[in-house]
Specification:
single chain; alpha+beta; Beta-clip-like; 3 domains; 3-stranded antiparallel beta sheet; 16 strands; SET domain-containing protein; SET_dom_sf; SET_SmydA-8
């Protein structure tokens, strides 16, 4: 168990957790592991039980010829041996349990909630030794889950279904089925298939790592190699320091992170970021005060969603409920933009919303950060705003959007993170275009830098991006981008050489 890189310790508050067994350098490999089981996330709409791509769950939708459960045409026709669907296929076929067609193929499909827990149970039968060694010690919060609303639902939809119609009553006790469900709820990590569809996997070593809203461990999952997972340290870690992964999205505000962790992981996070009303000086959840000039409104107790919010300058107070309501209103407005066609109007609508709330939200607020993400992928890609046609002022806009996100990522996902690499990739192109544009106008310098200095800066950015994305599965979108970044870097280096 990764003895050379980390040690497992235990304490009442965290349970088992990992610490660095020696000094580790940023990017150093921590461990690799194969998932104990992998399958659809909870509440997935109808999807192929082999590759997780969305399928039609209605009458006449694609089905497995053996068991009658959803399987896309490609996986049915593949002729090869099914890997992930094989286990439940045998169970369903032997017991004549068919998939019932659903009306709405975009809504969560309750019938599929049993798939991943069943795969965990079948994996236990196939490898009792690994179950005993790695899964048995894992936390599954039995008592808390019994109190929750989902216990009864799961008892009916999953436990009773697997032990009754599926004929598994003798093989798996009701307690064991609930344990499999709990293990997944509490410990599973989200992954993506080669085509970019969501799934979840049970990775026992990664689950040992404690949670923090500023992780120092990054991981990449390789769907083309059996969803093998590779974990590395994102920053330098000293011997004996705790190793942290994150169980939520780092780019959500404290209120949302706390509520996700309470509901699904059954704990309150007390990391320095959560305890700090300014979220480590980023003001990621901060509002601007309308009652005075330059005042910032933050929560008086970030761990309590009902706590008062107060302006640090004029003392104006408002309730946590009012703040959440305002945030929800803005969120809903932004969610509607996702329905816009992928054209100029979409970009302009995001810019309009961004301007509309400029006097309400702190510049680095999580809502502004998410709008920036949307804008970054639109500038340079959509008709009317393609890279070659962007004027300098819009190239500068894209650079500014990227740099603002990097300011947040430097604090919340420091070091060699995938999110950082994706933004660096977006940043390099407008920097090159701006350098070339200034040069074409006969200007020797831009912002006090020569053309060569500017291109070298872009090359460094591409190099950092490519080095991080190089850890990704080459078949995934990020892995493909790693290759593109390396080719662009080679071309850029050639252009720089011709300047000598």
């Amino acid at each position: 168990m990764g003895d050379s890189t980390y040690k497992v310790l235990e304490c009442p508050e965290l349970g088992r957790y990992g610490v660095a067994a020696r000094d580790l350098k940023a990017g150093e490999l921590l461990f690799e592991e194969t998932p104990f089981a992998v399958g659809p996330k909870l509440d997935s709409p109808p999807l192929c039980l082999e590759c997780c791509c969305p399928v039609d769950g209605g009458e006449g939708g694609p089905r497995c010829s053996r068991c009658g459960w959803p399987l896309c045409e490609d996986c049915s026709a593949g002729g090869g041996e099914l890997v992930y669907h094989r286990g439940e296929c045998e169970v369903f076929a032997a017991n004549g349990v068919r998939f019932r067609p659903v009306e709405d193929s975009t809504a969560g499909c309750v019938q599929l909630d049993c798939i991943t827990p069943l795969r965990v149970l079948l994996a236990k039968e196939a490898d009792e030794a690994r179950w005993k060694r790695e899964i048995e010690p894992m936390e599954y919060h039995d008592a808390e889950r019994r109190e929750g609303a989902n216990w009864k639902v799961d008892e009916n939809n999953i436990v009773a279904f697997l032990r009754g119609p599926c004929g598994l009553g003798k093989r798996f006790s009701a307690e064991l089925v609930q344990r499999a469900i709990g293990l997944l709820d509490v410990n599973a990590f989200e992954g993506r298939t080669g085509s970019g569809y969501s799934c979840r996997g049970l990775y026992p070593q990664l689950a040992i790592m404690a949670h923090n809203c500023v992780p120092n461990v990054v991981h990449s999952i390789h769907p083309s190699n059996g969803f093998r997972m590779v974990a590395r340290v994102a920053v330098d870690v000293r011997e004996g320091d705790k190793l942290y992964t994150t169980y939520t999205y780092t780019l959500t505000g404290t209120v949302a992170r706390q509520s996700i962790l309470k509901a699904s992981k059954f704990f309150t996070c007390r990391c320095t970021r959560c305890l700090d009303p300014t979220e480590l000086g980023t003001h990621f959840s901060t509002l601007l005060c309308s009652k005075c000039s330059g005042g910032l409104i933050t929560s008086t107790d970030p761990l309590d969603e009902n706590a008062e919010w107060k302006c640090g300058q004029c003392g104006f107070k408002t309730s946590g409920t009012a703040v959440q309501k305002a945030v929800m209103t803005i969120h809903n407005e932004i969610d509607e933009l996702a329905c816009f066609e992928y054209e100029a109007g979409r970009l302009e609508a995001y810019e309009t919303v961004y301007k509309k709330y400029r006097s309400v939200l702190h510049p680095l607020h999580f809502i502004n950060t998410s709008i920036r993400h949307s804008l970054i992928e639109l500038y340079g890609r959509i008709p009317g705003y393609e890279m070659a046609e962007l004027p300098d002022v819009l190239l500068e806009r894209k650079v500014e959007l990227c740099r603002s996100i990097l300011r947040v990522l430097d604090v919340f996902e420091p070091g060699k993170s995938r999110a950082r690499a994706m933004i660096l990739y977006e940043l390099h192109a407008p920097l090159i275009m701006l350098a070339q544009s200034a040069f074409a106008r006969g200007e020797d310098q831009r912002d006090g830098k020569s053309l060569k200095q500017q291109l070298n800066e872009a090359a460094q950015i591409l190099e950092e991006c490519g080095a991080i994305l190089d850890w990704e599965d080459p078949a995934t979108p990020e892995g493909i981008l790693a290759n593109v970044a390396q080719q662009s870097l080679a071309q850029l280096r050639q252009s720089i050489e011709t300047l000598d």
